[in-house]
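Changelog note: in this version the structure field was regenerated for every chain. One regenerated record is shown below for reference.
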Amino acid sequence: MSKVVIIGTGIMGVGIAAGFLACGAKTIVLGRDQLKAESIFKAVETCADAIDPAWRAKGGVLIGGAIATWNDWADTDFVIETVSERMDLKQTLFADLDKRVPAHVPIGSNSSGFPISDIAKGLPTAHRMFNAHYFMPAHVVPLVEVVLGEKSDPALAEQVCAFYRAHGKKPVLVKKDIPGFLANRIQHALMREALSLVQEGIATPDDIDTAVRYSFGFRYAAVGPMTQKEISGWEGMTLAAEVIYPSLSNITAPPACVMDLVKAGKSGIAKGEGFKKWPAEEAAKVKKNYETRLKAAFEVLKVAPDEG
């Protein structure tokens, strides 16, 4: 049985713990104290049910403990932190783990904004420290980005990727510690162009959603962009790119159309308004549909996994 220690009891900690538990791992959740850790057990088990209703038969075990006093590191395969996005907090935690966790055990940070090079700066065992970046909801979205820092050991990172594959995830190895890692860089490139098209009055947000969902987004549910172009051929893409690339947006900050919304407190469904108003009933329906579609896609991936 594999053994994983998850530090943090927020939404990401719940999803990450559920993923390992559903695969039959001994899953330790550490919080400020044992009661805090155990307070998320029900949520973890509910998420594990969504992954695999029969997970209990795999023998997974869920254990809670306190960060400050936990010392059972024997046979630990991986440690990952999901604490609040504060650099000082993460640096303090990693300095503590550097001393307490046996030097052969890899340690990951789920931080999406802070590079592991900065979190682990100056630590004697920085070679075994990586970003291990999940996407919400962590128990459903398969991707985990394993990011090398300046001192990270590439061979150990490959082992971490293999460990994730053995526990039902789709890891990618990001070989350089760059802002946004891999998926968010690609996502933001798309958003920069989409928001620029809105700003310039060329398309509405609804039409952009439709264009993405029912064209290349529809295809990307089957294969990624690189393979899709391998299938269709690169000649057409390169010819089109010569015409399109010079006109693509190269703005270096979000345009006014979205910044004005954020400044006005209209940041989306949670606030009741973004580019459009979100009555409570409609918002609930959209979120439910979103979760249903994610789960349906997740089930398809389990039945027909990528052979590549």
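Spot check on this record: The CA atoms of residues 15 and 167 lie 13 Å apart. DSSP finds 13 helices and eight strands in the chain.
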